[in-house]
Amino acid sequence: MSDASPNSTDRQSGNSKSALTRFFGSRITWPVLGLAVVLLFNAIFIPSFFTLEVRDGQLYGSLIDVLNRGSIGVILAMGMTLVIATGGVDLSVGSVMAISGAIAALILTETQLGMLGIVPCVLFAALAAGLMNGVLVAYLKIQPIIATLILMVSGRGIAKFITGEKIITVGDDSYNFYFDFIGKGHLFGLPFTVTLFVTLFAVTSLFVRMTSLGLFIESVGANETASRASGIHDKGVKIAVYVFAAFCAVIAGLIDASNINAADTMNAGVFTELDAIFAVVVGGTALTGGRFSLTGSLIGAMLLQTLMTTLYTYGVPSDVAPVPKSLVIVAVCLLQSPVFRGQLQRLAGKGGGR
Amino acid sequence: MTSPVLLEIRDLRKGFPGVQALAGANFNVQRGEIHALMGENGAGKSTLIKVLTGVHSRDAGEVRFDGQSIEPRAPVQAEALGISTVFQEVNLIPHLSVAENITLGRQPRRFGFIDWRRVRESAQAAIARLGLSLDINRELCSYSVATQQMIAIARAINLDAKLLILDEPTSSLDEKEVDELFVVMNRLRSQGLGIVFVSHFLEQVYRICDRITVLRGGQTVGEYVTADLPRIDLIAKMLGKEPADIESMEAATAAAHHQDAITLEKGEHNPPVLQVNQYSRQGSIQPFDLSIRKGEVVGLAGLLGSGRTEIARLLFGLDSPSSGSLSVDGVHHSRWTPRRAIEAGIAFCPEDRKVDGVIAELSVRENIVLAMQANRSVVRTLPMKKQLALAQHYIDALQIKTPSTETAVGTLSGGNQQKVLLARWLVMSPKLIILDEPTRGIDVGAKAEIESLVASLRSEGMAVIFISSELDEVVRTCQRVTVLRDQQVVGELTGDDVQENRIMEMIASSHE
Amino acid sequence: MNFIPKKWIPLLTTATVFVLLFSAASWQYEGFASMYVVADLFSENAFLGITAIGMTLVILSGGIDLSVGSVIGFTSIFVATMITDRGMNPIAVWMMALLLGTSLGALMGALIQVYKLPAFLVTLGGLFFARGMAFFVKPEAVQIDHPIYDSLGDIAIPIGGGAELGVAPLIFLSVFVIVLVITHFTRFGRNLYAIGGNEESALLMGLPVARTKIFVYTANGFLSALAGITMTLYMDSGNPINATALELDAIAVVVIGGTLLTGGVGYVAGTMLGLLIYATIYQITFFASLRSSLATIAIGVLLLGFIVLQKLIHRK
Q1: Any idea what DSSP says for residue B9?
Q2: CA A254-A256-A259 angle, 5° bins
Q3: Which superkingdom does the taxonomy of this entry point to (chain C) (predicted)?
Q4: Which of A140, A201, B434, C72 is 20 to 30 A from B140 in CA distance terms?
Q5: ipTM attached to this prediction
Q6: Do B114 and C204 touch (CB under 8 A)?
């Protein structure tokens, strides 16, 4: 079931489809199962994983840690989901994160404006980055990986230029409560980042489904010519999703910078675009575009973070963690490949058929 | 002495899920002849060629080539046997040189390295065999499509081909280029090559071909010597008519059309919904005039490739015109796009439903509300209740057979997909709806439903442009028919004149 | 411009940009127009050059390979660790490294071709995998101190003006010449152009599309490993973080060199020019004591310019 068809389940249940068939036919089945497997593994082998404790009215524990660290992945995945649903991809989000962090750090250390200065500046950066990507893809018809590669290359240079090629630390004299709160604050007993990503997820989900934007995105991703022939402004839709992806990226950049109290343009957001693509693909949105599931992407991002946290618990250095990550990516893609599925079915046919 | 028969295909059968593309086709080609393979959409021409060249495998039947029974599994194998194909779309590499394109994959080598001198020599020889002279060192894409086609032929016969299949080679050529191609074809014929010529242009077929084989519905209608087959008979055979059929049907429709003619005259004072003057698009349709009034059904009749679809796409703004003017309700429009056309109350059900029409992945409901939704602003979404009601209304009204409003359209049958597409536009209550082959690939029952739907739309005052290869359908449905041939409007029939044989005569009449 | 074939425009633009850039820098900065600087252009970027040449082949075939930087990083630390920590013979280690890089390339090529997976995604997987394995081998830098490395380090070919080329640029130049010959004088090389130009047509023309595509990723894996070895020769050390994001620089060099990112058009010689432009820009920021981030931005702007230029030239 996709988010787009709220009635599909109850309407189709009239037919012979059992609950089980419906469960396995749904696009968020696999990420949910994957998450369940990892959590079950942790429940058996790392009992402390589920331990929660309350300190100063705030929750602590591995699960909370997953939610907190996973927030950047979820936020980027929201933007990436919509871009991928139109049949595109945005490789520049990591660089845009770095730019956002750099702008924030510069404003905090060089001016007294605080968040009042940061918010309009990063929003402007998001608009500029999104427009550049969107115009290259929609109007110049440059393939998305190539179009967004340009900003991926130069974006980090821009970020470094902003910070003067050093790590700008947001120290005592430039301390800003609101900025600090973004990455390290607590709200409702949980890290503020959780409120942030849940809000973004809820608002985005509601917006795309309450308006026709979600329908237009899926329509453009599934069949661009037919969408144009139905009167959909396909170019406008594409530009909108790239701007939104950049918007998500600047928020993620602020969280990252606030977390480490600094703008580290060398490392901020490196490889995050890959994590985001991973979350989207695992979450059941096809790279070819069309139907998308923000819920799936949310779970995909959480699955990835849980996997990473589990590996760290087992003492796998964070630098080596990409190895299992890459194996999971390739495995998931293989499972989605029609050729591979065909081979599997033939194997199963041989084994099961008498 | 080798036998004069080069290719012999007997009782060829090939089925795809849901359609029997070839149901016992026969086809013979002799050495040193140009043989036309003709038929309308779905006749089985392309399937026959694909089986012959090893793209598809066959279900049954025999193919004998050059005295041997063959069954190629890939185009490469067919080529090795001596069967080469040149398609309408030039299948060469645009940015490589002419010489390279001719020799690619079989370049002469010395010590494992390409011997460029011999590459050029061999390419030059291949070009000379066609009697052409051009610079083989230039990039392929610097030449016209026509020349590229010749180069493709040069490549195709470079490998000692015995049979050359030319699949719609002239579709994008102008008259002079066609002449050049025919010179080359004649030359090859005199060298003993068998040539299969697939084309929609009757004129060209009669100019160059020795014999004609007509396919219809996956079967061979017959094989004829070109000189002995009148054009009108060829058209009748392609469309599956017998002269007797036509006469009996005329009587039945004449009365109905008489009535239409009277209504038509009454409506003469209505301003036209859509009017175009000297509208044209280079390479696809010559300048034409067309106007259509409220409550009128205008047919576009002509063979495949005659420019029917091209007109439809122009009128809906999917392609931009090279000349001419267009007005809707008397208002002139200059930059005509689908969005503007929709705003002006025009709707279009395209010929290729899967590419330009329905969005297979989306549900029936979403497909039905799509155009209406796109015409509102993004935030003014139709409430789900309204969407469901609309979808359900049209599912009932058009009798769309679907398990639910949320079923993906791609899983429905062709006829039901067509109805979903119609529903998408009916929701908009357009002033004019353009239907391009609305009955193609759907079953007989659904065809009748669509015909009666057109009649009821018309009685509600909607204007309809109706395009179909089925002439009987056109005659039953339309009060006025614009006839096309070879990318030109050749005439218009109204009232009592809307008869199948009149249409066929017009198509058959040669250039003056 | 009618007398210039369209496909030459990007290459000629590249050559012009390089000449202008180098002349301007020579006029502006004393000592820029010297053989030392020329030798530096080649030496400092030898490994980038090798991998950019491999990338040219992949892009010509219409694909992309994002794993190269990680494979270089992995190779460098693998070679250093095996020689220094395990005391193995460098030549045996090189063979092993080349085999590993080649195998990874072949595996990725097979996944892309056989299972029709998007190249950027599979090679992203390769990027993660190789980088992770690099840290798995050893998480910090390792020095190499071996007689073979010493004697190779002594190699220096004088190129006039007192400047010399070491072993790293020599490997790069040999690779350049060999690949130049392969692309122009072998069927494999021409097939790459055909596949990148129009894969559908190439199939219909009976060219070995699948074999060629798998081979090009395999060859690029080999060249990445070779670039990694060259890096250890140049630096006398290995480090798992070496060559991070180098794939982006390699792609930029290829595109600035006039190769069409959609495949089918381009020259290995163009990539050499692209590399020289890249190297000159960095050299200028060094001479002018500008921030090197300006060089990154300049490369990004050039990349944008060339991609848009290509789009305009090849617009139908």
Answers
A1: E
A2: 105
A3: Bacteria
A4: A140
A5: 0.84
A6: no
